[in-house]
Design brief:
elongated; Rossmann fold; 50 helices; single chain; alpha/beta; six-stranded mixed β-sheet; transport
């Protein structure tokens, strides 16, 4: 009796006992987060779950089995006792049955324990142990059954003993089968729900469903019958993979290294991963052992001799393949679905959590008044990361670490598989296997050498790609400026130059890939040649079919194992680099809010010095570092305080220091801090305002991509009455009437659907609505017109909603705010020039000095009194005040869309034509087909070679070769004895070399087509996007466009070619395999047809669902990056409001939304691989059965050929389906590119005949009957307006927000084509001129300053067109540099003075110009525009963010130096245009007044007069008009 059926169950039983002991004694001291999943559902709250019946069945079978084997043991002992005298005692039999009794008795104990109610928590674990024991017993029972019947034929036992043994064997087989079936199908728990959402059944399903991934079947059905899946169709992922769980487990070990934290947080996953890896490695070559025995059996077996050994071999191959593929499925489930998902979730969450705490270097978008870090930029970069870098950490580095988490076990299974493979090869080939292995080791360094070059090429490629994408990002961010200046062609050429360098590097990468593929294909050939040469020529052995095909199969498997090693090493290296990058970021400085003392009884500074950058005690301040020193300020609580000063004086730095967003060098700062968990308001709103809460209104409004209402409430409960009062106070009700969806209008990315004034008022409304007692407002009035500013000051900032609230207001509207202010701080060059109570400053005359400075020296004695009187004026038109605010339903909000269904044929056609036409694809098909044919010839010749050494006495020689139809005469000619070993060897080498050449050629040909497609598609996309109308950029998020140029072209450049080549390769391989096996056994064609139907069915439902999962995975990534981008932009606002916890929770939910489709996608891959591999194993088994049925006409060579092909068939068809799904997803990139290729285009850039070179020579502008609407279905914005601006005239355009001021400028530059009417410039209709000619001849200075990353020089002179002196002269014009005389008089600076960074043209400018103040950005853009020297200059709120004094200087400069130019100025500040020649007043798209300022302000009934009255600066404006009138009279 063999011990084979007793030892495996015994080993498993002992292992189970050991694991249970370890599990019982395990003490996990780390704090665990409790699962929030429940077993109750809304539809069925009372769910009952019980496995008592199943546990009883298992216990009963264990008792029966123990009794059966105990009876058998007693019977055998009695029989052996009787035969002692005859010396027939067999201790092996007794020991064999005793081991089985031990196993079943142990199982009985486990089954009894599992039924104990007090040990229910162990039920799942104990059932898993029983399942493994029962399954092992079941598999061994089949061998026991066979052995028993063989013994019954050849044995020496009595007939009664034989019959009893047979009965026990049959009962053992049946009971083991039932026990296995019951245990393996027992659910591990009841269905789970997460707030009504079903949890994926993989968390509680039976072990059978778990290892076969049958839990995914329901999702596949849903995908098959629906047009497309959405996130609501997906079950919740297991609780241990939820972002909140992963982040909790990860942050527990925050003081440790990142690698340690990853290991500790995922220890249980890594243990399962390790166990399945070792099990897979041990099983890997077991099917090959059965193959060798099968071929050996065919080779040595005489014809027509019955035996079951052949069937045993192929059945053993079937079972071992089943176990191997199930084990591989589990290994990759724990690696990809569990470990990768967990790592991605925890790293993204931790990076985001860090960004909420990190130093405010890049996060000063909220807006720093002056962060002149200049040459200190490198130090600054060490302290804070850029948005792009952190986005890369989340998008690239976490993905690299996640990818390596799947592959790290290669370092475990590779040595195990290598050892086993070498052992088998040595048994087959002897010393030849050593030589073969040495050859393999010699070739590996060459592979690594190519891999290193490929990696270097990839790094260079990534740099060019990053450069191109960054350049594209800057183009998209500044597209308005680029179009206004007609720079499209120049920027296009700049992008194409970088793209050409990228494609050259991509070509080098393709060369490296071709070399890599050459080595990869040549390696097994060289190894095989060396192996067979040594085995036959050196050792003098004959090459038989069993040795040839078995050794080649082993080496092919080994080749895949070793081929992965360089990639895994490379992934490991990349993962280490990524870990270091992330760890560096996580260890970087954090906001040190403890420096700010949160004492609510005091707000201000005590002898404090602050700067933007952080310095240690031993660090020296940079000469370019802007520092505010020795601040001693105490703001009154519950009152309004004003902070004023010229542009760049440090106003924002002062405010941000109060919020703790800067670095305290010395002294103390006092300011409250909003707690993360604030007290909930009661229903009566009595405790709404809290003393420890803060609100912040940034200079650049921070708005989330959500509805206006959501941005105003900002996470607080919606209180209708308070909300309406806030909307009214912030003058938003009229805007809501205009907006189609009212207050539920989506503001879009960075608030693109709103004007600057609307964004600022929404930001202010958020602060007013908040529960904060203390509110900081950074220059919120600069973005609105004078009328609105007056309203905001009266009804909002000093209105009833702000009573008893501390308000610290930075403003240039000092006259408007002075009357209500309790405290004033005036700054200059980073120093406090004047500070104190308003009454004290009034009495001392200091307030008049502040006002005089703010008004550029205009001295009015009664200015304070006048402003006080004017603040009591009411709005002339208050009808809308009484109007009910329209609040619309949430149902109007739109949802994001993404493509559904399969890729359209036109997308395939676009890719096919981009690669090449008929000849290209004809050559591709020819190369792939001939390459596959050469591979078949390889194996066929090996079959001929192995058959040539047959011993005719023992082996069957066939008269016909079914593969290529060689007759007996031809075969005898080939196989005759006259051919030496060299003949077969040399032809084999020739065929393999041709195969290698063709294999590499097909890839090179595809790479050639791919480069062509990449160049054509990118150039077409760039041309279409850069020529798209401005509305396209206003309605399309920048991230979406960048995704086309970034991720989509990365797929097109690299991934698409690889997947396409792999798909074609596997399809041709699959067809060749079917033909070869069918040629050997004709019956196989029927089996292949049946299995093909199954494969096609499984492949179709997989491809559809996988496509949806990949799309969802892609779509759900964007909200993560959008949320992160919004967080970085508004980090100061978020921290001020104490909303970091809420934003963190939102990010965790978004990470879960992204991890759900990713988890499902990975698990779907396991679902497919398990089914395809099981079908492939069955197909191999059937092929083996057909061979056994046809032994009379099949020799060992053909059998080896057929079986070697059959064993790889499942991989070929599985990868065909997988590659097709990946190829189709890659085509989604083509689909998205093609979508953008169909966008509308602007008018022609050049229209012949072109205007004269001197046009416009006079600057006359005539508008006739102009009707403008943004789209045909919308109401007109300008209503048939007509006016004329004469050459060299200075005209101001004023009006309320939404009156159509900016629409005039858009029309003039043809960003909007008129529905009716015309615009003439110097007598030429602008619609007859190409937009490039039109825009290049005009100059506009837009409201939003757009700067590019680089230097002051590169921003002023983008294309190096001007001399250096011209650049300095332009900076002096806008007063960023002092005049030459002033510069000479101020060459010496004291230690306390801050350096002017504009003196150095090479001073770095960060992306968007975030390292200089908003006002300085506007002045720099103004300097750039003035270099152009056009005849017509249009200024659109170009000086809104600078102080009045500077604005007055700029206007004087423009009047002085551009006296021969036509100036059109759109302004909210009436003071900016009050001394222009004429004023154009707009209201609701109509021209209501167009006259000189003197005539308009002299008419008390004019709208302009009312606007001047409501501005709070009527006397100043009137004085300016009179002054100009007198000057003109005197000149006359």
């Amino acid at each position: 009796m063999s011990f084979f059926d007793a030892i495996p169950p015994t080993i498993v039983t002992l292992g189970s006992f050991l694991f249970l002991i370890l599990e019982y004694n395990k003490h996990d001291v780390s704090p665990q987060i409790a699962s929030t999943y429940t077993t109750s559902n809304k539809n069925n709250p009372n769910v009952r779950f019980s496995t008592v019946k199943r546990d009883t069945i298992k216990l009963g079978i264990c008792i029966i089995q123990t009794s059966l084997f105990s009876f058998l043991l007693g019977w055998k002992m009695d029989e052996n006792f009787k035969k002692i005298n005859n010396k027939y005692l067999s201790l092996d039999d007794i020991l064999h049955v005793g081991l089985l009794i031990f196993c079943w008795f142990y199982s009985t104990i486990i089954a009894v324990i599992a039924r104990k109610p007090c040990l229910r928590k162990w039920n799942k674990t104990l059932n898993a142990h029983l399942t493994v024991i029962f399954t092992t017993a079941f598999l061994c029972s089949m061998w026991y059954l066979r052995t028993t019947f063989i013994i019954s034929i050849n044995g020496i036992s009595s007939d009664i003993t034989k019959n009893i043994e047979k009965i026990v064997a049959i009962c053992n087989f049946i009971l083991s089968s039932i026990a296995t079936a019951v245990a393996i199908t027992t659910p591990r728990g009841p269905p789970l729900y997460d707030n009504g959402r079903p949890v994926t059944p993989i968390s509680y399903s039976s072990i059978l469903d778990f290892i076969t991934f049958a839990t995914m079947t329901q999702l596949l059905k849903s995908a098959y019958y629906k047009d497309g899946l959405s996130d609501s169709d997906l079950d919740q992922i297991p609780f241990n993979l939820r972002a909140i769980t992963a982040h909790h487990n990860f942050k527990v070990w925050r003081s440790k290294s990142l690698l340690y934290r990853i290991w500790k947080a995922n220890l249980h996953i890594m243990i399962y991963q390790l166990i399945t890896t070792v099990f897979t490695a041990l099983l890997f070559f077991v099917p090959v052992v059965f193959l060798y025995n099968f071929l050996e059996y065919i080779q040595k077996k005489p014809l027509n001799k019955a035996s079951d050994w052949g069937y045993v071999c192929i059945f053993g191959m079937l079972i071992s393949n089943f176990l191997l593929y199930l084990s591989i499925g589990q290994q990759w489930y724990w690696s990809a679905s569990e470990f990768n998902t967990s790592v991605r979730g925890m790293l993204n969450a931790e990076i985001y959590a860090k960004s909420l705490r990190m130093l405010n270097g890049l996060c000063l978008n909220d807006n720093e008044e002056n962060k002149n870090d200049g040459s200190n930029i490198s130090k600054s970069n060490n302290l804070a990361a850029s948005v792009g870098k952190i986005t890369n950490l989340m998008a690239v580095d976490t993905n690299r670490i996640g990818q390596f988490s799947m592959w790290w076990t290669t370092f475990i299974d590779c040595p195990i598989q290598l050892t086993i493979a070498l052992y088998f090869l040595y048994q087959l080939l002897g010393i030849a296997s050593i030589f073969a292995f040495i050859t393999l080791i010699i070739i590996l360094p060459i592979n690594q050498f190519v891999s290193r070059h490929f990696t270097k090429s990839q790094n260079k490629l990534m740099k060019f790609r990053d450069n191109r994408v960054n350049l594209m990002n800057e183009i998209l961010q500044g597209i308005r400026m680029i179009k206004l200046f007609a720079w499209e062609k120049k920027w296009r050429n700049k992008i194409l130059d970088v793209r050409e360098s990228e494609l050259k590097e991509l070509f080098k990468a393709f060369l490296c890939l071709s070399m890599y593929n050459l080595i990869w294909m040549a390696t097994p050939v060289l190894v095989t040649i060396v192996m067979f040469y040594v085995y036959t020529k050196v050792q003098g052995n004959e090459l038989t079919a069993s040795i040839a095909f078995t050794s080649i199969t082993i080496f092919n498997e080994l080749r895949y194992v070793l081929a992965n090693l360089p990639d895994v090493f490379m992934q490991g290296y990349q993962a280490i680099v990524s870990i270091r990058r992330i760890e560096t970021f996580l260890n970087s400085g954090e906001i040190e809010s403890q420096f700010v003392k949160t004492n609510t009884l005091k707000i201000g500074f005590g002898n404090a010095s602050v700067a933007w950058n952080k310095y240690g005690e031993d660090d020296e301040l940079s000469s370019n570092e802007f520092v505010m020193k020795d601040l001693n300020i105490e703001f009154p609580i519950g009152k309004l305080s004003i902070v004023c000063g010229p542009t760049g004086s440090g106003k924002t730095l002062l405010l941000m220091s109060l919020l703790g967003e800067t670095n305290l060098i010395k002294g103390e700062i006092f300011f409250p801090q909003t707690p993360e968990d604030i007290l909930k308001p009661d229903p009566f709103m009595s405790n709404w305002i809290l003393d420890n809460c803060v609100a912040f209104v940034a200079q650049e409004s921070f708005l989330q991509n959500a509805s206006i209402r959501s941005n105003i409430t900002f996470g607080l409960p919606f209180h209708k009455e308070r909300y309406k009062a806030v909307i009214k106070a912030c003058d938003l009700q009229r805007d809501f009437e205009i907006l189609e969806d009212g207050d539920l209008t989506e503001v879009g990315e960075k608030g693109l659907t709103l004007s600057g004034g609307q964004k600022q008022r929404c930001s202010l409304a958020r602060a007013v609505y908040s529960r904060a007692k203390h509110i900081i407002i950074d220059d919120a009035l600069s973005a609105v017109d004078a009328h609105t500013a007056k309203h905001l000051m009266l009804n909002c900032i000093t209105g009833p909603l702000m009573n008893e609230r501390t308000i610290i207001l930075v403003t240039h509207h000092v006259g408007l705010a002075l009357a209500k202010a309790d405290y004033i701080v005036s700054l200059k060059d980073g120093k406090v020039e004047i500070s104190g109570k308003t009454e004290e400053l009034k009495s001392s005359g200091a307030s008049a000095a502040i006002l005089k400075g703010a008004n550029n020296g205009i001295d009015f004695e009664d200015i304070i009194e006048t402003a006080a009187e004017n603040t009591e004026l009411k709005r002339s038109n208050n009808t809308s005040d009484e109007k009910e605010i329209q609040l619309v339903n949430d149902s109007t909000l739109g949802e994001s869309r993404y493509a559904v269904g399969s890729v359209e044929f036109k997308v395939y056609l676009a890719y096919i034509l981009a690669n090449g036409r008929f000849f290209f694809w004809f050559m591709a098909i020819l190369l792939f087909t001939t390459a596959r044919f050469s591979q078949i010839m390889e194996n066929w010749w090996l079959k001929i070679w192995s058959n040539s050494s047959k011993d005719d006495n023992n082996l069957n020689v066939l008269p016909y070769d079914p593969i290529i139809g060689i007759t007996d005469k031809m075969l005898s000619t080939i196989s005759q004895d006259s051919h030496s070993l060299d003949y077969y060897f040399n032809i084999y080498v020739l065929i393999t070399m041709i195969s290698i050449l063709l294999g590499v050629s097909r890839l090179v040909w595809l790479y050639y087509g791919s480069l062509r497609a990449s160049r054509i598609l990118h150039e077409n996309l760039l041309n279409r996007v850069i020529r798209a109308p401005l509305r396209f950029f206003d309605t399309t998020p920048v991230g979406r466009i960048l995704n086309r140029f970034g991720r989509d072209f990365e797929d097109i450049d690299s991934t698409l070619t690889r997947t396409a080549g792999s798909f074609f390769h596997n399809v041709i391989m699959m067809i060749g395999t079917i033909l070869v096996i069918t040629a050997v056994t004709k019956e196989f064609i029927i089996a292949s047809l049946v299995f093909s139907v199954a494969y096609v069915f499984l492949g179709r439902i997989y491809a559809k669902c996988s496509r949806d999962m990949k799309r969802l995975d892609s779509v759900t990534k964007s909200p993560i990056y959008s949320h992160f981008g919004e967080t970085i932009i508004g980090i100061s606002t978020i921290r001020a409001y104490g909303a970091t916890k809420r934003f963190m929770e939102e990010m965790l939910l978004r990470i879960d939304s992204n991890n759900r489709p990713f988890f499902m996608k990975c698990t779907l891959n396991r679902w497919l691989s398990v089914r395809f591999n099981i079908l492939g194993s069955l197909l191999t088994f059937i092929a083996g059965v057909f061979i056994l049925w046809n032994l009379d006409r099949i020799d060992a060579g053909l059998a080896g050929l057929s079986m070697s092909f059959a064993m790889v068939f499942s991989k070929q068809i599985m990868w065909s389906v997988r590659n097709y799904a990946e190829f189709e997803m890659g085509l989604n990139s083509i689909e998205r590119v093609c979508e953008f290729l169909e966008i509308n285009q602007e008018a022609a850039a050049i229209i012949e005949p072109r205007p004269p070179a001197s046009w416009p020579h006079n600057g006359n502008i005539k508008v006739e009957n102009l009707l403008i609407r943004y789209s045909q279905e919308l109401e007109p914005v300008l209503h048939h307006i007509s006016f004329e601006i004469f050459g060299q005239e200075k005209v101001g355009i004023v009006g309320r927000t939404g009156s159509g001021k900016s629409t005039i400028s858009l029309s003039l530059f043809r960003f909007i084509e008129p529905s009716d009417g015309k615009i003439f410039i110097d007598g030429i209709d602008t619609s007859t001129i190409g937009i490039e000619d039109l825009r290049s001849r005009l100059t506009i200075i837009p409201q939003d300053p757009i700067l590019f990353s680089g230097t002051i020089r590169s921003n002023l002179d983008v294309f190096s067109q001007y001399e250096e002196y011209e650049l300095y002269d332009s900076l002096r014009r806008v007063h960023l540099l002092p005049s030459s005389e002033n510069e000479q008089s101020s060459t010496t600076l004291s230690d306390d003075d801050n350096v002017n960074v504009f003196k150095d043209l090479d001073t770095p400018i960060n992306e968007g110009g975030k390292n200089i103040s908003q006002g300085q950005r506007q002045l720099l853009c103004l300097a750039r525009a003035l270099l152009k020297r056009s005849k017509i200059i249009l200024m659109d709120e170009a000086t809104a963010s600078i102080d009045f004094a500077m604005d007055d200087k700029i206007q004087k400069m423009i009047r002085r130096e551009f006296v021969d130019c036509t100036i059109i100025c759109i302004a909210h500040r009436l003071r900016t245009v009050i001394d222009y020649d004429r004023i154009l007043v707009l209201d609701q798209g109509n021209v209501i007044e167009f006259d000189s300022p003197y005539n308009l302000i002299s008419n008390s009934n004019s709208s302009f007069y009312q606007m001047c009255q409501n501005s709070g600066e009527f006397d100043i404006l009137k004085a300016s008009v009179l002054k100009k009138k007198n000057n003109n009279t005197n000149e006359f």
